Amino acid sequence: MIVLAASGRWLAEAACAAGFDVWLIEQFADVDALRCCRRHQQVDDFSLTTVKPIIEVWLSNAGRAAVIYGGGLEQYPETLDFLARRSEILGNSAECFRKTLTKRDLFAHFARLGIAVPETRFTPPNLANDWLYKPMAGQGGSGIRLWQVGDALDTGGYWQRFVPGVAGSVLFAANGRKSVIMAVHRYYQSEPPWRFAGLSNAPLLTARQLALLDQALAELVLLLRLKGLNTLDIITDGDAVWALEINARPSASLQLYAPDWLAVHSAAVAGHLPTTDFRQWPASGFRIVYARRETVIAKGWRWPGFCHDCPPEGAAIGAGQPICTVLSSAENHARLSEQLDQAIHFLTTQFKRMS
User: Of 164, 163, 186, 182, whose CA–CA distance to 172 is shortest?
Assistant: First the structure.
């Protein structure tokens, strides 16, 4: 199975656990990702110019292969077109993927289905108060910034009025006709704002909000022909809930449910929805550790068992870049928060000595 993702360790691990030979194309080269791959290629981007030669060489003697993709291809749907011609996509088609990236149409669909969307403009607002600039095809919060009148205009972006509240996501399985909500996630707050810092399966939505989103997602799936495991990003504040975007591919939240999620995803793509969901799983979550200043992983450094996406010795991590992921589960969410806080404090102390 060929895996493509900006950070593909968790996808590769699930494929490996399912018995596949894993060929991974990603933007990192972490030691735990390399352990589960037969082939690995680190790239700067997922443009067709970059990916096509790699795939052609890898498949020169293998014919076709299954392909699964995660975050990172949002700017390169043409790469998905090529992959669909050369292999079997275990996920949404390039056409479906494009539809979710066409924000004007997507937000119109949300509105028709009764889902609120933050006030949105596709031309710069005249006032800077509480407006965010967002790239049309971003991921993980990259490129989002507070808009200032007079800022240089980027092509391919849009503006949304800032909405206070708690960010999260709804994980759902789809078969192109129907959908099932699998789990709801609460995002950890980040510094700087809007950068993805991790999540947990802590309660977030009321029963009424879940029912509203369940009905809307069923109609969106039929409209967009979504398949497999996808997520809807949301903001909640009391009884109010706003939709932000759909991630039409497996998301990093799935590592909470490893290795079960891959079988669910594969079955949904084939048309079979699950009869159970992930909402009964124990309290689980992960947080991403970012470098506060340039950090070089020390020689002889041994990664604790709770660390994932672990760079090799000597790797230089620039300030603001991710160092690793801390994953944990506990008997309740209070204990989960304690465990993650303790792990982050320990790692921050150690990385300070490496900077």
Answer: 182
